[in-house]
Amino acid sequence: MPTPVDVYRRALDFAARAHAGQKMSGSELPYLLHLAHVGAEINFALENEAEGFDENLCLQVGILHDVLEDTDILPEELAREFGEEVCAAVQTLSKNKKLPKAQQMADSLNRIKANSKEACLVKLADRLVNMSPPPHYWSAERRKAYQEDARMILEVLGGTHAYLEARLAQKIEDYSSYIEEEDGGQ
Ligand SMILES: [Mn+2]
């Protein structure tokens, strides 16, 4: 029986290959860093409170959450490597690009909620990590919209994990400084 750390490392190896060459938006840092941060948030959150969560599922979905949206990996391949449950959760975390852009977030959140607590935890961790300094070229408007989206995520997925939600709420407040910075700079 693989331990959670073995499971985590296997997913990270797969993600490293799938996302090879990709950089974080507006940065020279590898995309894998985003996934490592999401993994860390999930790990520390579960250390705080793991009751009711399948730890291996959280870690795998957390590390693999962008492979369907941002790489050439197909659902069949993901399911073959990590099982149907992981694949189904990652699909909920992937936007349906056939929908109008304005509906994609709400649609994904509905599917995440219907899927599992684990998928909800990953989405909270993902947005928490994304409440870092935005790409320098983002306008104040875009930053405000991103902060609003984060508030919606927190509201829709609230009741999943108190510790992670408190961290996200704090990061959302802190994000105002990046908006003011941009407003002041114009
Ligand atoms: Mn992400």
From TrEMBL:
Give a single Pfam family match: HD_4
Q: Write down the InterPro entries for this protein, in alphabetical order.
A: MESH1
Question: Which GO terms label this protein's molecular function in UniProt?
Answer: guanosine-3',5'-bis(diphosphate) 3'-diphosphatase activity
Q: Which Gene3D superfamilies match?
A: Hypothetical protein af1432 (1.10.3210.10)
Q: Which domain of life is it from?
A: Bacteria
Q: What is this protein called?
A: Metal dependent phosphohydrolase
